[in-house]
From TrEMBL:
It comes from Subsaximicrobium wynnwilliamsii. It comes from the Bacteria. It is an enzyme of class 3 (hydrolase). InterPro entries: Calcineurin-like_PHP, Metallo-depent_PP-like, PdeM-like, Pesterase_MJ0037-like. The gene is pdeM. GO terms for molecular function: endonuclease activity; hydrolase activity; ligase activity. Residues 31-122 form the Calcineurin-like phosphoesterase domain. This is Ligase-associated DNA damage response endonuclease PdeM. Keywords: Endonuclease, Hydrolase, Ligase, Nuclease.
Length: 214
């Protein structure tokens, strides 16, 4: 599996943005990801839309690679770890979790994280209702103004790239400003919200092989 990094320093902390849709915080040995939407493909199948289970399996394989590559001790999920109800996709997640029981998982609950508390307990997931404070950062699901530098998700940010004589392409990105970092959706089974250029914002778009800074 190919991994490309773009290292940035925020508040004195080295953060590695990766082409595999997650960030690594070196000091805390923590992977940070958003919007995994575990169970989304089964949710769609339940409603008559034929989405392959391989979509989620591919996401979990990518997560496994990242945990192994960085030897991460923590996984911080800034919302929407799960998509909806308990469904057949949960078996894949259960298998993955059983292979990574030494990994501490902390979830800042998002708008889709509505499972009963005993489900999170069964998977050994620590939950925060609104935020997680780990100086110098505040981890939240939905981006909002804050006195602390915040790391969030929810928006599934992306950018359009125009190519001369060729169709424009859409790429997922990390959106960074003076006060916040918005992560791309970890799951590939999500749409993209096109970000607009604005003074003070930087966009780190990526493909499987490259980063593009705007």
């Amino acid at each position: 599996m190919n991994l490309v990094e773009e290292q940035i320093t925020i508040e004195g902390e080295v953060l590695a943005l990766t082409s595999l849709r997650a960030m690594y915080w070196e000091k805390e040995q923590a992977l940070v990801a958003s919007d995994l939407h575990i169970g989304k493909s089964a949710h769609f199948r339940r409603h008559g839309i034929p989405i392959s289970a391989k979509v989620q399996q591919k996401d979990l394989q990518r997560l496994e690679f990242l945990v192994s590559h960085y030897q991460a001790k923590k996984l911080i999920v800034v919302g929407d770890l799960f998509h909806a109800e308990v469904n057949t996709d949960m078996a894949d997640f259960k298998h993955w979790r059983n292979q990574n029981l030494d990994l501490e998982i902390i979830l800042i609950k998002g708008n889709h994280d509505r499972l009963k508390d005993d489900i999170y307990e069964a998977y050994q997931i620590s939950c925060c209702q609104k935020e997680l404070l780990m100086p110098p950062f505040q981890f939240i699901h939905e981006p909002k103004a804050s006195r602390q530098f915040s790391i969030s998700g929810h928006l599934h940010p992306g950018v359009r790239i125009k190519q001369k004589g060729r169709p424009q392409i859409k790429l997922p990105c990390y959106e960074v400003s003076a006060t916040q970092l918005i992560l791309p959706a970890f799951s590939e089974f999500t749409g993209l919200a096109m970000s607009r250029a604005k003074k003070g914002k930087q966009f780190y778009a990526f493909t499987e092989t490259s980063f593009f800074e705007f």
